[in-house]
Design goal:
With 289 residues, the protein is an alpha+beta fold. The chain has 2 domains: 141 residues, FAD/NAD(P)-binding domain (3-Layer(bba) Sandwich); 138 residues, Flavocytochrome C3, Chain A, domain 1. It has 9 helices and 14 strands. The strands form 4 sheets. Strands 6, 7, 8, 9, 10 and 11 form a 6-stranded antiparallel sheet that branches. Strand 6 and strand 7 form a beta hairpin. The chain is elongated. The protein starts with a strand and ends with a helix. 40% of the residues are buried. Bound molecules: flavin-adenine dinucleotide.
């Protein structure tokens, strides 16, 4: 609940457990409390355009650690850079992995039309979805894609998918123009056969949408990752507003900012937490010797 300082150096932390407070003395501490993707107030404070968005994050990801570091003079960077994930089922909420698109799902709007290269970056796909009627879209794929990706079985079990034996039936279930959707899929299948997406230039065209049953999942964007956070240097030392390190204060992972710039690429958060976690651990250990 608080970082303790003495003579401008970290001297420990104050923690709370079952209503009781404890002081833990330490010459160095590592803050690894994650980002602020589940703190709706903080998200809209730094980026008002994202007011009202849902989140893929668990409810503990509230940016508390960032505030604790600010209280002892730590600086922050890139706080406005907040990533949305384009394929989230909001009601639950459940995130549908990018691999579903990678393995062959297309995204269509309520007119049954594709509107974007499905494998564009998260920010680009999210923005395109919000421009469609109803501010959402449908992932459409077939049994072959389901068989190629184990995760889809989980989505089916959770009841996130709608399913039908032909495209016309599926369109009725999801309320999408059936003729247009059939046209879209026929055209898309010809792109797969020719190895070229002449409409949107998508590079990955692993399979046609041909084998029943056919599936649809309604998706829209939700807050996924906060690229901004506390400022650190290459040693994972937290910096103050003058760019000087705060003695004994280290941070690693999503609590930090500036590592990913404006758009964290899928998979890179795990690299970030491992690389900077190791650096922070080694340096903090040296400091307490
Ligand atoms: C659904 C989902 C899927 C993802 N998939 C991928 C993926 O495939 N590849 C990838 O690279 N990244 C992925 N990410 C991003 C990645 O999981 C996160 O960036 C990463 O987990 C951040 O790790 P962290 O250790 O910094 O913080 P977290 O894992 O968020 O852990 C922070 C911990 O600190 C605790 N905490 C917070 N405040 C306090 C406090 N005041 N006192 C004590 N404890 C506190 C929290 O409860 C939490 O346990 C995904 C994220 C989500 C939400």
């Amino acid at each position: 609940v608080k970082i303790l300082m003495e003579n401008n150096k970290v001297s420990g932390v104050l923690v709370e457990n079952n209503g009781k407070e404890y002081k833990i003395n330490a010459k160095a501490i590592i803050m690894a409390t994650g980002g602020f993707g589940a703190n709706a107030d903080m998200v809209s404070e730094y980026n008002p355009n994202l007011k009202g968005f849902g989140t893929t994050n668990n409810p503990a990801i509230t940016g508390e650690g960032i505030k604790l570091i600010q209280e002892v003079g730590g600086d922050v960077v890139d706080m406005k850079q907040i990533q949305t994930h384009p394929t989230v089922v909001h009601q639950t909420p459940n995130m549908i992995t990018e691999s579903v698109r990678g393995e062959g799902a297309i995204l269509v709007n309520r007119d049954g039309k594709r509107f974007i290269n499905e494998l564009e970056t998260r920010d680009v796909v999210s923005k395109a979805e919000l421009e469609q009627k109803g501010k959402s879209a449908f992932l459409i794929f077939d049994q072959q894609t389901r068989e190629s990706l184990y995760a889809i079985n989980g989505y089916v079990k959770k009841g996130l998918t709608k399913e039908a034996n032909n495209i016309s039936e599926l369109s009725k279930i999801i309320g999408v123009d059936s003729k247009e959707l059939e046209k879209t899929i026929t055209k898309y299948n010809s792109f797969v056969k020719n190895g070229k997406d002449s409409d949107f230039g998508k590079k990955g065209l692993p399979r046609e949408i041909v084998k029943a049953p056919f599936y649809a999942i309604e998706v829209s964007p939700a807050i996924h990752h906060t690229m901004g956070g506390v400022k650190i240097n290459e040693n994972a030392e937290v910096l103050d507003k003058n760019g000087d390190k705060i003695q004994g204060l280290y941070a690693a992972g999503e609590i930090t900012g500036g590592v990913h710039g404006g758009n964290r690429i899928g998979g890179n958060a795990v690299t970030d937490i491992i690389v900077f976690g190791k650096i922070a651990g080694e340096n903090a250990a040296k400091e307490v010797k």
